[in-house]
Amino acid sequence: MIELVERMAEAVPRKSAGDSLTLPYDLRQKSRQRVCLDSGREAAILLSRGTRLVEGDCLRGADGTFVYVHAAPESVSAARTDDLLRLARACYHLGNRHVALQVGDGWLRYQPDHVLDEMVRGLGLHVTQEEVAFEPERGAYHGHGHADGHGHPSHGADDSAHTHSNSDSHSHEHAHDSDEEADEAPRFEGDRSPS
């Protein structure tokens, strides 16, 4: 089994890639999982927690091989309008519900949900179902290296749970992984070993 241990920061020529990996959006959000490469070979993704993959990423295997990532076509709701104010309102309401959105010129896409489809139709957009690669916006804090998307400094060992308060007047509590947890053996989706 190939162990994919690093997302390459620099572009690697595609001719150097020994294989490719095609995954839908939800699986591209998991940094540790067992996968089947497009060639049929088994691989383990063993990336830093919080690493999210997008179309065109290149992963390096522990054995030196390179694997290119592709976004798999999947079912999405697509909403269209020529009215940019309606589009902005739909984006606002979907974003307020923390819905992952892919936004284009006069259109937006999100994972299918009949309740959201009705809401978006009610805002005056035309909603259809499509089978396409889904690449939603990564968010304003994606480059700050913090998996929960808040972009704040790391906390000391004594501060394992805390509250965040953001300018949009909401807060939540969560615990950060401790060093002991980070050293555990990787777990894969589908493993039946005890926690």
What's the short story on this structure?
By secondary structure, the protein is of the alpha+beta class.
Relevant terms:
alpha+beta, HSP40/DNAj peptide-binding domain, four-stranded antiparallel β-sheet, 15% helix, Alpha-Beta Plaits, elongated, 195 residues
CATH topology of one domain: HSP40/DNAj peptide-binding domain
Reported CATH architecture of one domain = Sandwich
Number of helices: 4
Q: Indicate the percent of residues in helices.
A: 10-25%
- Biggest beta sheet summary: 6 strands, mixed
Proportion of β residues? 25-35%
Lateral strand order in the biggest sheet: 2-6-5-1-4-3
Per CATH, the superfamily of one domain is Urease metallochaperone UreE, N-terminal domain
Q: Look at the helices and sheets and give the structural class.
A: alpha+beta
Stretches where pLDDT is under 50 for at least 5 consecutive residues are 144-188, 191-195
**Terminus-to-terminus distance:** 23 Å
Order of SSEs, N→C?
Answer: EEHEEEEEHEEHEEEH
What does this structure look like?
This protein is α+β, with helices and mostly antiparallel strands. Among the domains are: 2-71, Urease metallochaperone UreE, N-terminal domain (HSP40/DNAj peptide-binding domain), CATH 2.60.260.20; 73-133, UreE, C-terminal domain (Alpha-Beta Plaits), CATH 3.30.70.790. The chain is built from four helices and twelve strands. The strands form three sheets. A six-stranded mixed β-sheet has the order 2-6-5-1-4-3. A four-stranded antiparallel β-sheet has the order 8-9-7-10. A hairpin with a 4-residue loop joins β5 (58-61) and β6. It is elongated. Residues 144-188 and 191-195 have low confidence and may be disordered.
